[in-house]
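User: Sequence in, structure out. Go.
Assistant: Echoing your sequence, followed by the structure tokens.
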Amino acid sequence: MIKHSIRYFNNKPIRAVWDNENSLWWYSAVDFISILVEPNSPRRYWNNVKMRNHELSPFCGQLRLYANDGKKYLSDVINEEGVRLLLSIIPSKYKKEIQGWIKGLLDPIDEQSKKKAYDFYKTELIEKDEIGKTIALQKIHAYLFEGLYPFAGKIRTKTISKGGFTFANGDFLPQVLTDIDNMPDDTFTEIVDKYIEMNIAHPFMEGNGRSTRIWLDLLLKDRLSKCIDWSKIEKKNYLEAMVASVDDSKAIHKLLNNALADNIDDRELFLKGIDYSYYYEEED
């Protein structure tokens, strides 16, 4: 097993583990039941289903999965073939959507770039003197989106907006990014202020948030031997704090400070952070 993950279907989490030896995903059976039929007791419902449908047995197993308390517990899991069989057994309004979700068809670019993001942990792409600079962010963006976006790693020249807010004017963006490069980044406060300014700059046409959160973690790791445990930050709270940070940065400073972690070399923490980072970008 090389990694624990959390994937999302309709904003609901599904715990998963990658089986490297057999090259397949194992998913929490209880999590899938919660989505398929939304019962009052997903665990009891799942136990009844597996007892009555022995044809599921070849596609089921038990693995230790993370629970809400952060600990691992032995849990029933089901692989992709098992999920397909489960969909034929249990009527669900989400049948077609889940079939596409399993294949990564709901958002091909997002799914493909997330797989690249998982592997970023193993790279030595960023030089030490590039950390906290625009060049590092460009390298991250290029790594995540090469072959997916024609502008991967390229600074935009157009002016863009989102939700009624206009990001840095494309004509002045090179100077804005130079100014951000020159901002101090030795303390937590300085690092978060720099992160906020880079978010306001929004240097790429797409993929800014996913790239910049990795960029932020590299900066925190290098300067303070810290990183963000993104799983501790709710999507709604994060998005609201980032919108507010244009005028008032207190909320995002507090959220990030409360989620600081010391285990900067924990690969599973990094991978979990990628899952949450991509979840932040999903449309509700």
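User: And one key feature?
Assistant: The beta strands are 3-9, 12-19, 24-28, 60-66, 72-79, 161-162, 165-166, 227-228, 260-261.
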